[in-house]
Every structure is written in structure tokens, then in C-alpha cells.
Amino acid sequence: xxxxxxxxxxxxxxxxxxxxxxxxxxxxxxxxxxxxxxxxxxxxxxxxxxxxxxxxxxxxxxxxxxxxxxxxxxxxxxxxxxxxxxxxxxxxxxxxxxxxxxxxxxxxxxxxxxxxxxxxxxxxxxxxxxxxxxxxxxxxxxxxxxxxxxxxxxxx
Length: 156
Description:
Low-confidence stretches: none
Order of helices and strands: HEHEHEEEHE
Radius of gyration: 33 Å
Number of helices: 4
Largest sheet: 3 strands, parallel
Shape: elongated
Number of strands: 6
């Protein structure tokens, strides 16, 4: 096979209908538009917005501004106060948070927030930490570890 042998499949290409080209062509005279009326005229027909006088769908829906960001990451918040229930010296991560019911799924991105008090040393693994949470965990003698978020997997 060579370049000059290439052809589209049989039936893949269809000739366009040439309307209004004489009575012998099969689509002459009225060109398939019927006789008279709004749709027979050039530029005829109602716009896509028109719904026969009924209030159009675009006007029936509530007015909505802006757009929805499809790349938005929804973090599951966990406060420092909730970390106080774990044993000292433990490493806590999203798997453990899901196991104890602080978040629904272990694949959810987690943010640690600074509400509450912490007096035990923990190693906390999460996707994000607030400044206050970071301060409280380190003040209690704990460590923080950031989990890099793979945006292709985590979407909502």
C-alpha cells in the first residue's frame, strides 16, 4: 500500500445535498422547506431561545455568577484538639484518621488546623498545616511531615 492508494471507507464520505438547483435535482423549487410560512423564508425560524411563548429555560433558572473551578481541592479539616486523643510518640496519618472516623476516606487530602490544645508529642503526616497548628504540634515536642498531593488522583 502506498500514499496514492489511501481512500476513505465505503460510505464514510457522503455528498452534500445541493438544494434549490432545479426540479430534476429532487430538491428544487421550494428546496425542502415546504410552501410559505416563517420557516420557508430566508433567515426564517425562531431562535433557539424561543420556546413557543413559554418562559425560556434560561430565564426560569436562578441567576448564577462566576464559574466552578474543576481543579479545586477540598481538604478535610482536623483540629489539633482531635490529635490529643492519640497516644504519645505515635505517627498519625490519613489512614489512621480514616480508621478512627475523623475523615471518611484515607485518600482524602487532610489539613490540620490550630483549634484546641495538644500536650503530647506526635509525628503528624498531612497534606497541609495551618501556621497555628504547626506551632502547637512543635511546641508539644512533635514533628510534622507534609504529604505531597498528587492532583491527578485527588479531585472532587
